[in-house]
Amino acid sequence: MIDGMTSPTRTSNTPMPSDAGDRRQVRPAAEGWEQQRTPEGRPLLQFASPRVKQPPQHLADLTLAERQAKLKELGLPAFRAKQLSTHYFQHWTTDPERMSDLPKAGREELVEAMFPPLLTEVRRLRTDDGNTIKFLWRLFDGALVESVLMRYPGRITLCVSSQAGCGMNCPFCATGQAGLTRNMSTAEIVDQVVAANRVIAAGELGVTEHPDERVTNIVFMGMGEPLANYKRVMAAVHRFVDPAPEGLGMSARNITVSTVGLVPAIRKLADEELPVTFALSLHAPDDELRDELIPVNNRWKVDEAIDAAYDYFRKTGRRVSIEYALIKDMNDHAWRAALLAKKLNQRGRGWVHVNPIPLNPTPGSIWTSSEPEVQDEFVETLRAAGIPTTLRDTRGKEIDGACGQLAAAE
Ligand code: SF4
Question: Could you tell me what percent of the chain has a pLDDT over 90?
Answer without folding.
Answer: 83
